[in-house]
Amino acid sequence: MKNLVVLTGAGISAESGLKTFRDMGGLWEEYDVMEVASIEGWEKNPELVLDFYNQRRKQMHMAKPNNGHIVLAELQEHFNVEIITQNVDDLHERAGSKQVLHLHGELKKARSSIDETDIFEVEGDEIKWGEKCKKGSQIRPHIVWFGEMVPAMTIANEIIRTADYFAVIGTSLNVYPAAGLLYMVKPDIPKFLIDPETISVGDMQN
After folding, report:
1. Strand runs (DSSP E) across 29-117, as ranges?
2. How many other β-carbons are positioned within 10 Å of the β-carbon of residue 101?
3. Residues annotated as part of the active site
4. pTM given for the model
5. Burial class of residue 95 (count of CB atoms within 10 Å of its CB; 0-12, 13-18, 19+)
6. Which of 191, 181, 162, 206 is nearest to 2 (CA)?
7. Exposed, middle or buried, 23 (CB in 10 Å: 0-12/13-18/19+)?
8. Which of 4, 42, 47, 112 could link 79 by a cystine bridge, Cβ 3.0 to 4.6 Å?
9. What SS3 state is found at 44?
């Protein structure tokens, strides 16, 4: 089978009712996103950050995969489909996609606040302030915040290089380092863009 690599962003989950930071105008209940989605925000007010992701987790659990997620899962009958997503929801997996790499972490997972390799499933919808892992540290969302490294980029670069076909769905390619993946794609393979209003066509012609 040919390898189809797909890079997805918030746009593919928007039709399932999951709001993006851009939809919120950079604000969440009067708070700047940097207060709820950055390492500085976590250090300043961890309870607010936990509340933000607890609410997003509840929203995710109520959402359902849409046709975009389902079609990508169905393409596995014809291609070896590898999805690299900037999304932290689990809609690709629930639609049936088997190979999904989350660049920015996963809402359904948590981790130790002192050991980024100590990752585990969230029980229920909430992570509570004062809830500690076995190592004795506060549990935090398994999310890559602004100001943190993106460990999955190394794997993503390797996946991109194997692509026989490459597609971008629902992302503006404005967020780095994820946007840099476009330049790792072999220049001679077919590239597809879905959601053309968010990206200039020239960006896909490298």
Report:
1. 31-32, 80-85, 100-102, 105-112
2. 17
3. 104
4. 0.89
5. buried
6. 162
7. exposed
8. 4
9. helix
